[in-house]
Amino acid sequence: MNNKRINRISEEVKKALSYIISNDLKDPRISPMTSVTHVDVTGDLRYAKVYISVLGNEREKDNTIKGLESAKGFIRNEIGDKVDLRYIPEPIFQLDESIERGIYMSKLIDKVNKKDKRGSTDE
């Protein structure tokens, strides 16, 4: 299938999922600070790998993934209502920790820069 079409469908599914998670789901396990960072739809449109970012501790992340897994049927049905496709992809939720890694790396770089500035003024 055309790669451009798959990318467009992935973006449409991402938009729909973002809306569904923030507005339609009422599960208390799902953190309010949950965002969809990326969606990869397979070429046959049967599955969508959904990368979820959750701001919070490990327990909140685990609970959010469990809540999303238990609402998978509802989510798939809502995607079908919002995106016009012959086959509605089954979401597969994965935790995306790239944002946390990026923040950690940024802090490390800032720390090294501060040490470097202090070291250069001493000489």
From TrEMBL:
Stretches that traverse the bilayer: none
Entry's localization field: Cytoplasm
Keyword Transcription attached: no
InterPro entries assigned: KH_dom-like_a/b (IPR015946), RbfA (IPR000238), RbfA_dom_sf (IPR023799)
One GO CC annotation: cytosol
Keyword annotations from UniProtKB, A to Z: Cytoplasm, Ribosome biogenesis
GO biological process: maturation of SSU-rRNA
GO molecular function: ribosomal small subunit binding
Keyword Metal-binding listed: no
Subunit structure comment from the entry: Monomer. Binds 30S ribosomal subunits, but not 50S ribosomal subunits or 70S ribosomes.
NCBIfam families xrefs: rbfA (TIGR00082)
Annotated family: Belongs to the RbfA family.
Function: One of several proteins that assist in the late maturation steps of the functional core of the 30S ribosomal subunit. Associates with free 30S ribosomal subunits (but not with 30S subunits that are part of 70S ribosomes or polysomes). Required for efficient processing of 16S rRNA. May interact with the 5'-terminal helix region of 16S rRNA.
Protein name: Ribosome-binding factor A
Gene expressing this chain: rbfA
